[in-house]
Amino acid sequence: MKTKGDFAIAIQILLSCARNPETRICSSKLAEPVGVHASRIRTIVAKLVKAGILIAHEGRSGGVQLKRPAGKIDLEEVLRVVDPSPFIKIHETPKSSECPVGCGMAKVMKLVHSKVEDSARKSLRSFRLDDLLEVVSE
Hints:
- By secondary structure, the protein is mainly α.
- It contains 6 helices and 2 strands.
- A two-stranded antiparallel sheet has the order 1-2.
- The mean pLDDT is about 90.
């Protein structure tokens, strides 16, 4: 699963907001513990705002907050927002009419991809932000 780290960063942003629900957190404060530039945080935040997961407040006392309760946000939604690409990239192989295995590889990989994708997304849907907040708070 290739997410360029945006998925983990998004989760850290959201957990920071969930931990301090009344506080507006600016991108520089979010960037520091993650160890990335604030502009990368803003790029991810923009996606989360557009999806209705975060709300952004502009100005001197601006920052971001969760738009919905932490218990209403699951990890599959977060992944879909920050990295909608499939979990497994299927390598296109040329069809070989002379090889019975080669002829069927596209169907085989499509089946495997579909099962893995469905299973992973189902698993991610079972994790809510408030569940993860409990783990972080332990």
